[in-house]
Amino acid sequence: METRQLEYFVAVAEELSFTRAAARVFAVQSSVSAGVRALEAELGARLFERTKRSVALTSQGEALLPRARAVLDAVDEAHAAVAPGPHLVRGTVRLGVFTNLGYLGLPRVLAAFRERHPGVELRLTPSPAGSTGLGEDVRRGVVDVAFTGLDPQDHPGLRYTRLTSATFVAVLPAGHPLAGAASVAPGDLADEHVVTTPRGFGNRVVAERAFAHAGVAPRADTEVADVGDLPAFVAAGFGVAVVPADMYEPADGAVAVPLDAPEAWSLGLVTRPHPSAAAAALVAGLVHALGSRPTPD
């Protein structure tokens, strides 16, 4: 079994296309196809279901994928161990992201990382299940590093690094009786309709804990996939919202009032317990750029 065959396999598994996989690994499609067939022959297993229009992993392919990634990570670590300097870290890092990270200046931060580590290829991918889904993606090896809006205890078995913390604000219609208040308690919103993000999103999980701590459960009857859109929905009359202050984006017709609750929203990073050299370098770069304090495993 050759590492190049595993590289071809992982590329096809992630792209679900032999054409895109070939472009990604700088090889002709026939070489990628031949490499995957040779790997299937050696393993005695069919790794992909192929049709004229689609490519999908078989159950055997699903089982092999995290192990193939682990092998390639180990190869990258071997190269890094004998490299003449820290700037020669090599490999691919799949970074799990979610929307509303614009306030971090992430493109600038990642550009600085690439300048320092030109041998590392970055691939950014979101999860429709928010921080919960990103944590599972790390656990399954789909991504190597992920941003998370959940707390360390929500990611058992993963390595967690806290980056920033923010208090919550209640987003209210401009004409709401509490719009001019100095602060709002979770209990003040007990009878409100709440506009929120889908289940699994970190900001929703932590906000619901604040409500539960206060003994209330507002009606979450409108879900919006982008935190930044919540104030606009509040202004349009869908209800109220609770969002991290760092993620609040002003909208005409809505106001933000500090939420008087002990819970805070934290932005962090999660990796597997023993990340690759490239993944560890990315975490270190984000720590340097954004500031953090590591949390014990």
UniProtKB/TrEMBL annotation:
<dbReference type="GO" id="GO:0032993">
    <property type="term" value="C:protein-DNA complex"/>
</dbReference>
<dbReference type="Pfam" id="PF00126">
    <property type="entry name" value="HTH_1"/>
</dbReference>
<dbReference type="Pfam" id="PF03466">
    <property type="entry name" value="LysR_substrate"/>
</dbReference>
<keyword id="KW-0804">Transcription</keyword>
<dbReference type="GO" id="GO:0003677">
    <property type="term" value="F:DNA binding"/>
</dbReference>
<keyword id="KW-0238">DNA-binding</keyword>
<dbReference type="InterPro" id="IPR036390">
    <property type="entry name" value="WH_DNA-bd_sf"/>
</dbReference>
<comment type="similarity">
    <text>Belongs to the LysR transcriptional regulatory family.</text>
</comment>
<feature type="domain" description="HTH lysR-type">
    <location>
        <begin position="1"/>
        <end position="58"/>
    </location>
</feature>
<keyword id="KW-0805">Transcription regulation</keyword>
<dbReference type="GO" id="GO:0003700">
    <property type="term" value="F:DNA-binding transcription factor activity"/>
</dbReference>
<dbReference type="InterPro" id="IPR036388">
    <property type="entry name" value="WH-like_DNA-bd_sf"/>
</dbReference>
<dbReference type="InterPro" id="IPR005119">
    <property type="entry name" value="LysR_subst-bd"/>
</dbReference>
<dbReference type="InterPro" id="IPR000847">
    <property type="entry name" value="LysR_HTH_N"/>
</dbReference>
<protein>
    <recommendedName>
        <fullName>HTH lysR-type domain-containing protein</fullName>
    </recommendedName>
</protein>
